[in-house]
């Protein structure tokens, strides 16, 4: 495997894993319905650490996505020509799907951040005899974390496909590959003529 693919994989995965870890922590610290207080006709929502964690997780995921995409675009224009047509289409499909998942993940983070914003109040909803305070249901931070990891993996796959050498372009062992700019002599030397003594 190309060393540039390994280096990019490590960097992007570090960002994506850090984002996911923050997302999972945000999930455990998000607002619970028991923490909402009702006072004077409004619902009082306390500040939660999930707010800041969600912002940091979304920023790390965006950084991972941008790094993978910039590297992928540079892979398209590499001098060796990169992956052939069908593989290039596969790489582009992976990159597009990666961006779709990343956008959905960031939107989930944003939704979680809005509902865990600094201490705020919202109007209560009356349902017959009951008074309800809305809160965010579902594991939005966990979903965002998992989607972010999947987006990072797809971004790395797209880059790895673009960095593949075309068939027949593999380097030869034992230094048999000509150096860059070196012209390889393909002509065979003329046969040696052996002189015979005259009789």
TrEMBL record:
Residues 1-23 form the signal peptide. Its main location: membrane. It comes from the Eukaryota. The keyword Magnesium does not apply. GO terms for cellular component: endomembrane system. Keywords: Membrane, Signal, Transmembrane, Transmembrane helix. Residues 167-199 are annotated as: Disordered. The keyword Transmembrane helix applies. Pfam families: DUF1218. The chain crosses the membrane at residues 50-71, 91-110, 144-162. InterPro entries: DEAL/Modifying_wall_lignin1/2, DESIGUAL. It is found in: Endomembrane system. It is a multi-pass membrane protein. PANTHER family: OS07G0462200 PROTEIN-RELATED (PTHR31769). Belongs to the DESIGUAL family. This is CASP-like protein. It comes from Setaria italica (Foxtail millet).
